[in-house]
Input
Amino acid sequence: MPQKKAGKEGTAKRPPTTPNKSEMKKVKTDISPEVGRLRASFNQVKPKLRDAGIPYSLYYPAKMTITVKGTRHVFTEPQAVEEFIRNIAPTANGDKDD
Output
């Protein structure tokens, strides 16, 4: 005869609860407003990189790295990323014009 486990058998499962506003704690970020603005300046180029299928990362404080054909490119200004996209992105995935 199989032995029964002692404990929670037979207890009803409760759905997960969502805390109300008074129970939620604020998370403070360690990023200054200036660094936040610098990082946000890259927001305009992120969708373009995603559309082109180019992987990117944003590192502290505000450095964007883009990897194309195994080569990592580092940018500190979004204008440089825009230029990179215009000049290099069409060949980023190895596509060749016929």
Observations:
- Residues 94-98 have pLDDT under 50 and may be disordered.
